[in-house]
Amino acid sequence: MDLNKISKIKNTDSGNFFILAGPCAIEGEEMALRIAEHIVKVTDRLAIPYVFKGSFKKANRSRVDSFTGIGDEKALKILRKVSETFDIPTITDIHTNEDAALAAQYVDILQIPAFLVRQTDLVVAAAETGRTVNLKKGQFMSPESMKHAVQKVLDSNNDKVMVTDRGTMFGYQDMIVDFRGIPTMKEFTTTVLDVTHSLQQPNQVAGVTGGRPDMIETIARAGISTGVDGIFIETHFDPANAKSDGANMLHLNYFEGLMEKLVAIRKTINQF
Questions:
Q1: Which residues are bridge partners to 194 per DSSP?
Q2: Where do the DAHP synthetase I/KDSA domain residues begin and end (predicted)?
Q3: Is the separation of the CB atoms in 94 and 121 below 8 Å?
Q4: I need a surface site. Which of 22, 123, 167, 202 has the fewest CB within 10 A?
Q5: Burial (Cβ within 10 Å: 0-12, 13-18, ≥19) of residue 115
Q6: Whole-model pTM over 0.90
Q7: Are 75 and 58 in contact (CB under 8 A)?
Q8: CB neighbour list of residue 98: distance below 8 Å, 6 or more residues apart
Q9: Using the 8-state DSSP alphabet, how is residue 81 labeled?
Q10: For the ranges 40-49, 150-159, 172-181, which has the lowest average pLDDT?
Q11: How confident is the model at residue 221 (pLDDT cuts 50, 70, 90)?
Q12: What domains lie within the chain, and their CATH numbers?
């Protein structure tokens, strides 16, 4: 996919990877703008193409009392404000066909969650909006099988599609990243590595997903070394009190240092 087809994206000629980054969920306007402002400063300085990520609602919760959102249109309007304030593209995930048409009015990229990526109607609904579609690889799917999900978007007359690896289930409560899948998926489309979700520890007895944020740098460095086109990272200035996925998010304070290391690795890789 030609990255320049994404509205407002910058630094595409830098030779860097691109990044989808932001909080797991939109918790309010102030927090979204605060996170976006910090990431924009870092990515502009390092010439990294950047897309702000934030879920306008969370449907895939472990428990019925888990946080699901602040209201669909309220959160989507915040995503639009982030885009307008910093002149950057935005991405959010959708869960129903109706979500596709609604969210497409506010964001530049529609993301299909991993557990829904085989839902043909949902993928087609996203593709038919004309927005870029990011397909999360199902935790239960092989890299090779993602070609069929990509083809559904292409068959809907939309060539703006990418796939994101977010790990594969390893037993009941752990994820692994099979880096052999990166070059496989790159053969048929732009490929992203979701670093933070790959480090989730789902299905915990308490009903709250765990994680291994201490391994974020390890997975990210390996992904860049393997040649991913983009990186996906959820980050927050207070992960311990984030309303969703705090256990596997990167603290915002560590974002700049990690990006500096990844840019240096990418520069080395580009020489080969």
A1: 232
A2: 8-266
A3: no
A4: 202
A5: middle
A6: yes
A7: no
A8: none
A9: H
A10: 172-181
A11: very high
A12: 3-270 (3.20.20.70)
Helix (H, G, I), strand (E, B) or coil at 31: helix
Q: Which residue has tokens 């909080």?
A: 23
Residue 25 DSSP label? B
Length of the chain: 272
Strand (E) or helix (H) holding 176: strand 175-176
DSSP symbols for 188-225: TSEEEEETTGGGEE-S-TTSS-EE-GGGHHHHHHHHHH
Q: Which amino acid is at 42?
A: V
234 pLDDT tier (thresholds 50, 70, 90)? very high
Query: What is the identity of the amino acid at 248?
Result: N
At 42 the three-state DSSP class reads: helix
- Give the tokens for residue 250: 């990167």
Tokens read off for 108: 């530049």
Enumerate residues 6+ apart whose C-beta is below 8 A from 136: 93, 111, 112, 113, 114, 117, 163, 164, 166, 194
CA distance 87 to 20: 15
Q: How far is CA 233 from CA 66, 76, 197, in A?
A: 22, 20, 8
The pair of structure tokens assigned to 202 is 């789902």
